Each structure stands twice: as structure tokens, then as C-alpha cells.
Amino acid sequence: MARLREKYDLHYILCGTGSDLDFLQKLTRRLHLQDRVHFVGYRTDIPDFLGAADIFCYPAKQSNDCITVQEAATAGLPIISARCPGMKWYAERELFEPISLKGDMVDTCAAAITKLIEDKLLQKQMGAVNRAQAKKFDRDDNKQEESYEILRRNHYFPTVEHIKAK
Description:
The protein is α/β, with parallel strands linked by helices. It contains eight helices and five strands; from the N terminus they run E-H-E-H-E-H-E-H-E-H-H-H-H.
């Protein structure tokens, strides 16, 4: 955001209340981005936010589930993503077509955002591919079951056994 603020009128919306929230809020203040980065907390209306977005950026390096990426794909958004385990799983099954961030996250993310802003056709094409793939995924119960089983294995959806073990 800081690298692109002079060139584009971008706004970044962060939903959720994760463990990095305090760090991200301090970083936003340090970079003087309070007018561009919006922390909206826990939300139940994510589809409304996705409907208003042009690009979905998911820089998480450790996420296993990537459910929000599925939601962004369903909304027809182009996706920029770090190479986390969950995105690797989707990529192996050719479910979505993200721009994968490699190397320096700040540079590659800024370059990917710039590419999508300046190439509206690419932005629309990627969004259309993602929406079509998401619809296919939603109709394919085997892929959904496989996805949910991986999430359960990684304790995102606890099983009865997992709850009893605690």
C-alpha cells in the first residue's frame, strides 16, 4: 500500500481479529496509511465486502484452509496470494488461478496489484476463471469433501475426537 499510494487511490480492508492485529495497526500508523487501510474486525457480511472489491489479496504464508480465497473466487475476483499450504492444495487441483507471490512479498505484491489495476481485461479474465472454477468446485462433492477433510486434519474444523482430546 505504501509503495502504491502516490500512484493509485487504493484502499485495503482487513476483516478479522487475528493475532497480528495489533502489529498491523501499528504498522499502518507508522506508514501513515490510516486513511487507506481499514480494520473492520470480525464480520458476517464478507460477501458484501467482496462484492465491492476489485482485487483480493491474501498474503498469509501459513494458512491451511483459505476459505476466504474460495469466497473471493466465488465473487469473481482476481486473487493475489502467498504460497501457503492451503493455496498449494487449490493450485494442485487447478481450482483457482491466483497470482502467486514469490520472493520479496512487498515488491511482488505491489507489482501484482499494479498489473491488475493497469490491465482491466486481465483483471476481468482472472475473476471470470475463478468464478467458473468456484462454481465447479461447489458442484463437485468429492472436491469439497477432500477440502473439508484436509481442513479437519489441520484442526480448522474440529472433530468430536479432537474436542474430547482437549
